[in-house]
Amino acid sequence: MIATDTTSETGRDLVVALARAATGGLVDTRRAAEAWGVPRATASSRLFRLVRAGWLATVRRGFFYVLPLEAGTVTTIDDPWVLASQAFAPCYIGGWTAAEHWGLTEQIFRSTFVVTAGAARTTSIALIGSEFRIVRASKERVGSVQPTWRGTVRVAVSDRERTLTDGLANPGWVGGVRHLVEMLSTYKRSEHWNPNKLLSALAAHPKGAAYKRLGYLVEAALGGDDAVVNEALAYKSSGVIRLDPQVKATGKILTRWGLRLNVTLPEKDAS
Q: Which has more pLDDT, 248 or 199?
């Protein structure tokens, strides 16, 4: 039976057991209780004492980062993706962070973009020196994203097409429509351009507003593509929406697509 105090070697033993059970150095109260073979109430008390003794850092309530034994005071975590995958589960890395990962943009964003089906009380949060932008989505939508390896940890991240279709439905996820156009243009010029795959990704989680933006942007900024435009026309929703929901400016209404053109697009890419 493990002693309950957290001093000297006994504290080290408790931390070693936690480190073995942790994912990317991260552990919650349930996993700690399992690692120590004690009730959750006992585990919670031990965790609190370990934090006070400087063995652990609190990420948020009931969730902890196991400090390397010789680390001293922690100011950040090596991989924010791993932290996000544990702290906001179930979730996936998406939006502008996924766009950076796949080379769809050269713009650097300070925060890591996370799409979660879990509880999220705020849209922006800082944990152990890392900043996160959090948005909510259904469990079905989050669960359909495939994981990739980040060191020894598997973390879900939206692929190129899912990242783009998420941006078409929610331009703010990728930094706005102008940035979305640049991403689409980069995608179209790349060896990964696959309009059928893009349309399939959109059809998997269809949203009429996304079809409107896709059809219009392909026509107005990407040199056109009949197959994409025709499908977008077939599945676009009724009514009028803003091209960029985050921009308050007004603009003329384009009846063909049911869009209020409230932002000016970059020059057309004819490639």
A: 199
